[in-house]
Amino acid sequence: MNKQMTAADAVAHLRDGMTIGFGGWGPRRKPMAVVREILRSPVKDLTVVAYGGPEVGMLCAEGKVKKLVFGFATLDAIPLEPYYRKAREAGGLELLEVDEGMFQWGLRAAAMRLPFLPTRCGLATDVTRLNPELKTIQSPYDDGEVLLAMPALNLDVAFVHVNVADRLGNTLVTGPDPYFDHLFARAAQQCFVSCEQLHERLELTTEQARCNTFERYLVSGVIHAPFGAHPTACQPEYGWDLSHLKRYAASAGEEGGWQAYVAQYVAAGERAYQEQNGGAERMGSLALPVF
């Protein structure tokens, strides 16, 4: 029942051409330690499914992404993810760009093992013109309404980052927003969870139970990764590292910028990464963003 593993163990489950989902939202609670491990791996030709943040840009910059299924790709304070922008402008990606609600509905359809779910999201917009693979369906009831049939976003593997987990696969998201991580977990054949704190076995109180948004049977592996969401935020532990994100964004405009970023922050592993970012004391003191 001990599901603990390393990030390298989890990434070893990936194969070229897989469809991979990443939990979190933009620059918030992304499984970045796992993303960096994917960058170090040889896996390629991935279909990436995400409410996108820096994981999208980094994987695009490293040439790992064949297709991107997304609602947005942003660093929030830096509105457009810079390496996603470069890949998009270069025309090197297959894309399914949908409304945020459609995206959530696609995850929910996969989580429910349905081929699609009907929605009004996307109607009367260019989403169907730009994505001709999306179909509409007429209600079989008296209303006869025509709705968009959002296809299930079935995932081979999902990666999510949580605040607390145990070795059995129980998880707690203690920040203010669980986002849609529970749907990523349910939509995937395998789900790997990285966490800030790892316990032998959680004994959940009634109050804690509401933070346990998906069942442990859905979890294939647990990775202890303190500061594993950095440079994105992981409330309430730490905020996003805007100075790091600014350096990252600036590298997209520099000759050889991505290679320099990888050499400094990715190639040497997580311990070196934390040292490069001021260590636990600085990373743990990053101010929480205020909205």
Automatic annotation (TrEMBL):
Metabolic or biological pathway, per its Swiss-Prot or TrEMBL entry: Aromatic compound metabolism; beta-ketoadipate pathway; acetyl-CoA and succinyl-CoA from 3-oxoadipate: step 1/2
Keyword Transmembrane: no
Region forming the signal peptide: none
Record-level Gene Ontology MF annotations: 3-oxoadipate CoA-transferase activity
Naturally occurring in which organism (per UniProt): Pseudomonas putida
Keyword Secreted appears in the UniProt entry: no
Reaction(s) the record says it catalyses: 3-oxoadipate + succinyl-CoA = 3-oxoadipyl-CoA + succinate
Annotated InterPro entries: CoA_trans_fam_I, NagB/RpiA_transferase-like
Keywords: Transferase
Pfam families: CoA_trans (PF01144)
Protein name stated in the entry: 3-oxoadipate CoA-transferase
Entry's EC annotation: 2.8.3.6
Gene3D superfamilies for this protein: 3.30.30.40, Glutaconate Coenzyme A-transferase
Biological process according to GO: beta-ketoadipate pathway
